[in-house]
Design goal:
This protein is mainly β. The chain has one domain: Methylamine Dehydrogenase, Chain H (7 Propeller). The protein has 1 helix and 29 strands. The protein is globular.
Length: about 325
Amino acid sequence: MTSSPLILPRPDEKSNSHTGCIFSVRVSTNYIVSGSADGSVRVWSKSEGRLAHPPLLGRPGSAVQGVELSEDLDLVFAGNSKGDIVGWRLSSGERLCTRISHNENVLALALDKTTLVSTSKDQTAIVWKVKCDESPASYLELEHTLEGHNMAVLAVQLSHDCIYTSAGDKSFRIWDRSTGAMIKCLNMNASMAKFRIRNTAVCQQLVGACTDSTIRLYDIVEGVELACLEGHTNVVRSIEVLGASAIVGIAKQFRIASASYDGTVRVWAIQEDKPFSWECLCTLSFSDAVVTPFPFSDQQIEYRVMDIQADENSLYCCGEGAEIVSWKPQFY
């Protein structure tokens, strides 16, 4: 069961809404950041439920398709449809840098304390060193260009020694973070629009949101598929690992949340003592919750979900609507 969805911005601040589809959302301790087809990045205060700054703008006519933030670095980055990466000061909204990085749309970003990685429709991923102590023009220093995918690079994740990417060519690649050399390539049964890495006592697992309407789980070392979750009726666009927790009367569970073009978010569970035995705990309707939809066509009934993020007690999703929708599942 879940509580009623919360909408951002609140109804009395509707004028602060995005004016186009929201492609990306990220959450931190104090902020929610969203990037939209309207060309803006909006930084929201979690505690106040309103904009922390006026909308952050990049190059006119560009759609923002990927965002990342770090409270530790006090930075927000956005990648847009012109191939730019733009950086701002998180606390003030001050624009710091613009880098023309890719030949086509920037589709996704990943950020940690020292590194930003951008992926693109141009089939590459670029690794940037983040240099906060330099002048704004030097905030991003090119380290590596990762080449090898044969279609758009859709998603990226960082670890302490590796960079992971997935692409429309149905491949998942692992790269050496220090050299940019490819370590491994796995050929998948479907392209992963987004993925998460999960380390267990038994193996390193890849959990992927797939373009064939499924969620697929792989053993990365062995390169074998462990499970395929079915239930969505359109592209699964985004995924979050919610972790494991002891629940009264129920064995320890590993849970994920998936977001789809079918207009829903689903929360799934696996019993840790019964590997790969899955169940769908609930289905949440973004289509019903969104107040101001931006349908792709006049015939649409469902409004596509583009991204999902989670914090310690809530799920946040965005898509073909002016609002960010969040839920607090009671079993969370």
